[in-house]
Amino acid sequence: MVSLNLYSGTDTGLVRENNQDSLAVHSWQDEAISMAMVADGVGGYTGGEIASRLAVDSILQQLEKRIQQARSGGGFGQHWMADVLRETVHYANQQILEQQHQSLDLKRMSTTLVMLLFKDDQFSLTHQGDSRCYRLRHSNLEQLTTDHTLAQEMLDEGAIDQRAFEHSPYHHVLSQGLGLADELGQTIHQEALQAGDLFLLCSDGLTNCVSDAVIQTVLNQSIEPQQMVDELIAQANDNGGIDNISVVLVEVDERL
Q1: What is the domain extent for residue 95?
Q2: How far apart are CA 21 and CA 11, in angstroms?
Q3: What is the pTM of this model?
Q4: Structural domains in the chain (count)
Q5: Torsion sign across C-alpha atoms 98, 186, 173, 50
């Protein structure tokens, strides 16, 4: 039986007036299901906050429905996690688009999303935008997501080289995100867990201020995971705190 421990924290940072990040962690112990997600909203003073919260709340609501359906006889099939990720994220996108149409003040709102879903000894991952998922395994940090930004797209297509990419002004221009289009280009990554895995979900308020090398150092410290969360947020603020900072850690128990 998989045992997961979930930890989280969010901070407004030192520059922004409000926190447009939203996050959620939850477990359904009877079904050995857990989820974690981070959303980073954009679009005006309140629009980003509304978009990110709507995404998180909508997905959590739909996930609860799908679990209830499975409990009632639908069952948890081989592709259950991937199907649930596609359906719940699509639903959240539609909810945001509907809100855009109902209010001119919200017509430009959108949000990133990075989400992990765990069932038994497997995890599934999906993301939109530049919020990231990392995994620390055997002390080595690996980025499991690729940013959905115009800069990354230009690099992938060969329009710019690595040097130009590093100085590109388009790192914050999203090529994918909830609220940007009716149809989402979703990718789902599914893989087996290993004992001792440590997953990090974060908004770019962390990665714009803290290098991967520093993140790896913090996650390899002999401290409690919640202290790691707090340390990463403190590091981001020490380096300017230029954006909202959200961090979620998921620890896979060593007894897996």
Answers
A1: 4-252
A2: 9
A3: 0.94
A4: 1
A5: positive
